[in-house]
Write a structure and sequence with these properties.
With 329 residues, chain A is of the alpha/beta class. Chain A has helices at 14-21, 23-28, 35-46, 61-72, 87-91, 125-137, 172-175, 189-200, 219-230, 236-251, 261-277, 285-296, 304-308, 313-323, and strands spanning 51-54, 76-80, 92-97, 102-107, 114-118, 139-142, 145-148, 154-159, 180-183, 255-257, 301-302. Chain A is 44% helix and 15% strand. In chain A, helix 12 (285-296) runs antiparallel to helix 14. Chain B has 22 helices and two strands. In chain B, a hairpin with a 2-residue loop joins strand 1 and strand 2 (386-387). Chain B is elongated, with a radius of gyration of 42 Å. The chains are: A alpha/beta (329), B mainly alpha (493).
Chain lengths: 329, 493
């Protein structure tokens, strides 16, 4: 990418910006071989979005969120979604305290900064929607009382691509609430060897070790950074480019259902965060293109014949992005 | 060969009927023939598979190639069977090498692709002929026996069908949840379990077809010999003689005469009658026989035969009739020409449609991605609405940019420099820039290009262009002047 001007932000110190841009490198100290996933999760963090991660178990999803929480000093919670999980198990409930003889609110795991919703598609739709509403509204209602969630609030929901039996696949409308869908894949041989060595040498059991990650940012410092990212300069051509990509996706022959306007909005939000991580004060078409696959892959549904032929949304999006003319005038 | 012991009904047959007789024979003795074929083929397959385990294609080829090794035992067994003898497996094992060996090298080399293998096999194996004798014998026997070629043709096709059916059957038996085996990979896979399953299917198909192929060829051979040598007549007469001699010693004159005739026709056989009657008496007897109602009937049959053009001149035809004939002929010829034209047009359209469909196929190899062909693609004239043709650019691009710079139109100057750089990269350095390529991707292409060494300048130019186009940040005048000078150095002629 093209180096460009450093910015001092809108009232944000250059030192804070520098620390924010070092977040990826910090997480990489604990999570090895998943650079792409780390990059995309950090984009979601600065774009104030949520991430749906798809990958088989044991690839370091929990470690990733723990490391993120460690680097940001936020509160981390994990919920394992199961078929009998109730909405109140996530949001919380009101209980009668016998000692004080009054009702007391018991807050659920959703009250945190970083929530790992493991295997979200194993819970029924009612429970899923409880979380997805919390993601969207950034607030939770318990017995008629509304509680705001602590910001920053990042949900990292995971799905297992295999063992689909007995699951409740997320409907398109729910998927749309995730800013990005990220694929977590097996690491390369060298990275895996390095990771195994790091995890096994001098550690007891298979506890996740995030001690290598230093506290880089405080949770409260994230909000101004998110505001800074949202205020990055964006030329009209860039907006036009993102809209053209999304509109082309709606009319693309291999796509049965294309993304809605929220797709364009999400694409530009992610592109801004990408530009920020590239140390740029403005967004370029490269940022849009770099973010497009992760933003759009869960917002499109392929036609049956393409699915039968084994094409993935990524293949179709790659073709699509090659055919949409980039702005250069 | 004692024809009286033959167990099949020999009668004049067409070659097709002969093949049918062979199939009936194969059906009635299928299990034995099948096991006999497997007894030869399976050990060889296993040996070849062990020797060339890592080369499944070679194993399949060798198993197929050695077919002439497995077929002679079947023929030998059949040749005994039609005379009522059923050889056991132990006897066949004793005879095996003696049966397989004759002319084996020739059968496995230059005769391997002969289309009448099963028909020619009896000549070498049963008659023991070789060299020129064999050739002459086959040329006599094979006259008009095109069915033998068809037998091979159908055999090949049925083998392929059976093999495919076996594979489809396998795939159908696998539950869709356990979709570890796909039809595509079964047919096209280059290795692994799919190829070995193909081999089993192939072996199975060959073993099922071989009894019919060998028996079919043999029966055509028998039919042909029967036709040439009158075996059916010989057998008929022999049976007649047995009946006459055994049951009716005072036979009629006709039967006696006929038996005598047989004695002449079949050399090598013992004379049936002791003495020869007078020639005139025979003639008289024949005349008497012919006077009988059975032989005395006369039939007249009419048929059409083409005798060529007649020499009738047109002068004999009235001019009006001739005119009408010409008109009609012209009309039919014209219609035929139109029909032919439409036929060719239809064929052309079908071919064009098929080519179009093939070109639209997603799995069709993308020739554009081949390195050798990449440079042959037509070069773009516009990139995202930016005209990059050399004609659209001023002759002295740098001078023009400097003029724009002096006039305070820095944006236009930088745009011109970037556009010119793209034009040079596309047309002079033949860089294949996609319509959807962003500035960053253009830069990556330039940096990875071996033809262009001044990537550092293009990086600077791109950064300045991006800052201005998307960040609305104009470079300083000094920076712009430096870009103009360096542009001339890097891209100037």
């Amino acid at each position: 990418m093209v180096d460009s001007q450093q910015t001092d932000g809108n009232g944000i110190s250059a030192e804070l910006l520098s620390r924010a841009r070092g977040l990826e490198a910090e997480i990489r100290r604990a999570v090895i071989g998943q650079d792409r996933v780390i990059h995309e999760v950090v984009i979601a963090l600065f774009a104030a979005g949520h991430v749906l991660v798809e990958g088989v178990p044991g690839l370091g999803k929990t470690l990733l969120v723990r490391s993120l929480a460690a680097a940001l000093g936020g509160r981390f919670n994990r919920v394992q979604f199961t078929p009998d999980l109730m909405p109140s198990d996530i949001s919380g409930h009101i209980m009668f305290d016998m000692k004080s003889e009054e009702f007391r609110v018991r807050r659920g795991p959703v009250f945190c900064n970083f929530l790992l919703a493991d295997e979200i598609n194993r819970a029924p739709a009612k429970t899923q929607s409880a979380l997805l509403e919390a993601m969207q509204e950034q607030q939770v209602t318990i017995e008629g009382r509304t509680f705001n969630l602590t910001r920053p609030f990042l949900v990292l929901a995971t799905q297992n691509p295999i063992e689909q039996e007995g699951t409740y696949p997320l409907p398109q409308a729910q998927l749309d609430r995730f800013l990005l869908k990220v694929f977590i894949d097996y690491p390369g041989e060298v990275e895996e060897q390095q990771m195994v060595q790091q995890v096994t040498v001098g550690s007891v059991g298979d506890q996740l070790d995030t001690s290598a990650v230093r506290l880089l940012l405080k949770a409260e410092e994230i909000l101004p950074l998110q505001e800074h990212v949202a205020a990055l300069e964006m030329d009209e051509q860039i907006i036009n480019y993102a809209v053209r990509i999304v509109r082309t996706a709606r009319e693309w022959s291999g796509i049965e259902a294309g993304p809605g306007p929220r797709g364009s909005i999400s694409l530009l939000r992610a592109a801004r965060a990408e530009a920020f991580l590239q140390s740029r004060a403005f967004v370029t078409p490269d940022d849009v293109k770099a973010a497009a696959t992760a933003v759009l892959r869960h917002r499109i549904r392929l036609t049956t014949d393409l699915e039968i032929e084994g094409y993935s949304p990524d293949d179709v999006l790659a073709d699509l992005l090659d055919s949409v003319a980039a702005p250069r005038t | 060969m004692d024809l009286s012991r033959i167990t099949i009904n020999l009668r004049p047959r067409t070659p097709w009927e002969g093949a049918d007789l062979g199939f009936a024979l194969a059906r009635s003795e299928f299990l034995r023939l099948w096991l006999l074929w497997l007894a030869s083929a399976l050990p060889l397959y296993l040996v070849v598979a062990m020797l060339f385990f890592s080369e499944p294609m070679l194993v399949a080829l060798l198993t197929w190639w050695f077919k002439p090794l497995y077929e002679p035992p079947l023929l030998f067994w059949l040749s005994r069977r039609i005379f009522g003898e059923r050889l056991g497996f132990s006897e066949m094992r004793q005879h095996w090498w003696r049966v397989v060996r004759p002319q084996l090298f020739a059968n496995l080399t230059w005769r391997r692709f002969g289309t009448a293998r099963s028909f020619n096999m009896p000549v070498a194996l049963l008659e023991g002929l070789k060299g020129s004798e064999r050739r002459e014998r086959i040329s006599v026997l094979g006259r008009g026996q095109h069915v033998t070629g068809w037998l091979t043709f159908f055999g090949i096709n049925f083998e392929i069908l059976l093999e495919l059916s076996f594979l489809v059957f396998l795939v159908m038996l696998i539950p869709s949840e356990l979709n570890w085996l796909e039809m595509d990979s079964l047919v096209t896979s280059g290795g692994g379990i799919e190829l070995w399953l193909q081999h089993i299917g192939n072996l199975l198909a060959m073993s099922l077809i071989a009894p019919f192929y060998v028996a079919g060829g043999f029966a055509i051979y028998l039919t042909r010999r029967s036709e040439l040598e009158g075996w059916d007549i010989e057998i008929g007469f022999k049976r007649l003689a047995e009946r006459v001699e055994g049951k009716h010693p005072s036979s009629s004159l006709v039967a006696g005469l006929l038996l005598m005739t047989v004695g002449f026709v079949l050399p090598g056989e013992p004379p049936i009658a002791a003495g020869l009657p007078d020639r005139d008496a025979v003639q008289q007897s024949i005349q008497e026989v012919l006077k009988d109602d059975v032989f005395g009937k006369r039939e007249m049959r009419d048929s059409w035969e083409y005798v060529g053009d007649t020499d009738e001149s047109a002068e004999d035809v009235p001019w009006l009739l001739q005119w009408l004939i010409d008109l009609f002929e012209g009309y039919t010829r014209g219609m035929a020409t139109v029909g032919e034209f439409l036929l060719w047009l239809g064929a052309g359209l079908i071919i064009a449609f098929l080519l179009y469909r093939v070109s639209r196929m997603r799995d069709w190899p993308n020739l554009n991605k081949l390195p050798g062909l990449r440079r042959r693609q037509p070069l773009p004239v516009t990139l995202s609405g930016l005209d990059i043709r050399a004609e659209s650019l001023p002759e002295d691009l740098v001078r023009q940019a400097e003029i724009l710079l002096l006039a305070g139109e820095a944006r236009a100057a930088l745009s011109l420099l970037y556009r010119g750089a793209l034009s040079v990269l596309v047309f002079r350095f033949r860089l294949q820039i996609n319509i959807g390529a962003t500035e960053g991707e253009c830069l990556l292409q330039v940096e990875s290009s071996q033809d262009f060494s001044s990537a550092a300048f293009f990086r600077r130019l791109t950064a300045a262009w991006q800052g201005m186009a998307y960040g609305h940040r104009l470079p300083s005048t000094g920076e712009l002047e430096a870009l103009c000078q360096d542009w001339d150095r890097v891209f100037g002629e």
